[in-house]
Give the backbone structure.
Amino acid sequence: MRVSVHVAELDLIVNVDVSPDCTVADLKAAVACEFPDGDPRDITRAKVLKDAKQIPDASSLRDAGVVQDDLLIVSLGASGGESIASADARALAADGSAVDAQAMMESFRGNAGTLEALRRQGGSELVDCIEANDVEGFQRMMREMRKRMLAAREQEAEEMALMTSDPFDVEAQRKIEERIRQEQVLGNFATAMEETPEAFAQVVMLYVDLEVNGVALKAFVDSGAQMSIMSVTCARQCGLERLIDKRFSGIAKGVGTQNIIGRVHQAPMKVGEHFLPCAITVLEKEQDMDFIFGLDMLRRHACSIDLRKNALVIGSVDVELPFLSESEIGKTAQEAFQGKAPEAAIPTPSAAVATPSPAVPTPSTTPSSSSAHDEEKIARLTALGFSRQQVIDALNATSGNEEFAGALLFG
């Protein structure tokens, strides 16, 4: 089983996998391995507390009533009775409330990183109580968290009993298979978090600086868009609205739909010190980017996306346009693509006019409410003992991925 151990003097929390028959002395030895290098303090004389009561070194964790996910307090006693009293104050009662709520809230307030982690994991109400010094609200939230944890344990025990009662039951075997699969997914997630944490970082989309008809724009480089596009507002800013050929109107379908109001057949685009002619499809609605540099221009001018140089290389004029950093792009444009790359949309022309088939990427947005998520996902995760808001926050943070959201909630 896994237990969490809080070393009071070091403000260190260690998660330890131990056997229920492990003695407290063995547990202290395991915790000592996590001490910072060169720390001279001796843990053998430390006191181990559960629910504000000291556990003897010779006692086993099972005999002391320690169960999965329990929190134990280790007091090194370096500061005498005051240190032990401080550890007692941060201990938890049997119902999950704090023995000394004021001391525990002060401990949380002294660690901004812990407060931010709590808020990210759906504990906004608890953090609000801590910041407002609301003792009653804090105790209520702590008790609710304890109830949810116990309910999740009971449900897990019931499911395990059901699955093992009849080994030949098809439904039981299906649940066992799903549990094994889920454990493999979480194991794979944990391995990825440890070995390649950079894979979970947000990827900055590819933007370059250029000018269209003398107006500076931040162009989104998209090899998945068949045609280069801009919104009618941007076309107006660039003085191109009068050149829009409305015979080339239609419907752009992708993630949602947009009306194509027409096409500018040739506009001057400046890259570096060179001018290139550019055909632009104009959309009716405002977008989160000024201009999309599509595949038509990439092919026509022998462009290559060179990620080693971090630049768009335009072969026809031998110009390298460096990709913009996240700060240069601007928050609005970058958030439009969080969690999912834009999809190319296929325009449907109006019946009276035969038009080419440009592709118009319509950006997706990160879901911000429960309506964006499958209710079945929310139901499955709330059944594990978490509140609906916690589950929705976790799904938002993982772009709707149920396995990653579960790992985040339990993490």
